[in-house]
Hints:
Elements: H1 2-26, H2 30-55, H3 61-84
Helix pairs in contact: 1-2, 2-3
Amino acid sequence: MMSNLxxxxxxxxxxxxxxxxxxxxxxxxxxxxxxxxDLIGVLLLSMxxxxxxxxxxxAYFDIILVxxxxxxxxxxxxxxxxxxxxxxxxxxxxxxx
Length: 97
């Protein structure tokens, strides 16, 4: 019974990823695309966690942490790019140096 519910939730998460891919490819603005990319990362994280529960193992927890960290770093980098137009600043702020 529990494995059937976990498989159903995997199917629902897969459909959510398909919907997010549509928003990623057809989003009207760049911020919509960044939000869709972040959502895909979270959905992948959730799918891996459910697979861990199905297989009754802790082996994939490291992968979950890595995907979470990469999703966070990617989202913050895109947000900084949207706000300022550059990700890494050059450091030439003036005659203070």
